[in-house]
Amino acid sequence: MLKGFRDFIMRGNVVDLAVAVVIGGAFGQVVNSLVADILTPLIGALGGAPDFSAIKLGPIALGKFINTVVNFLVVGAAIYFLIVVPMQEIEKRRKKAEETAPPPPPEPPEEVKLLREILSELRRKA
After folding, report:
1. Number of other CB atoms surrounding residue 51 within 10 Å
2. Coil, strand, or helix at residue 118?
3. Which of helix, strand or coil describes residue 109?
4. Same structural domain, 40 and 61
5. What domain range is 103 assigned to?
6. Statement: residue 110 has pLDDT above 70
7. CA 72 to CA 66: how far, in whole Å?
8. What is the pTM of this model?
9. Is the domain of 46 the same as that of 57?
10. Does pLDDT of 87 surpass 80?
11. Which of 8, 23, 24, 52 could form a disulfide with 63 if both were Cys (CB 3.0 to 4.6 A apart)?
């Protein structure tokens, strides 16, 4: 039973997933800090207070929902423009470099291979 558990834990995809979850959590903190500490104050400076939590429609806290939606849109925009777009550009450049790389030389004909073998054999005997 323990061997099966060990084999399960040591699978490559389980370890990769664990690393991805940890990195994702840390990256989430970075993005949240970017939004809360940099982008939201900039939005507030440009368009007034970015806090809508005081807006209520009777007992419904509509402002909190609006804050959450705005936060979601800002996080989505930050991830898109700071991560996705640059990664797409890097991938595009990488593919272009692969396409413009010269193709490998063609395989020599059988006669040339045979002559090379004969030459190497003669050099070995000499």
Report:
1. 14
2. helix
3. coil
4. no
5. 53-126
6. yes
7. 10
8. 0.54
9. no
10. yes
11. 52
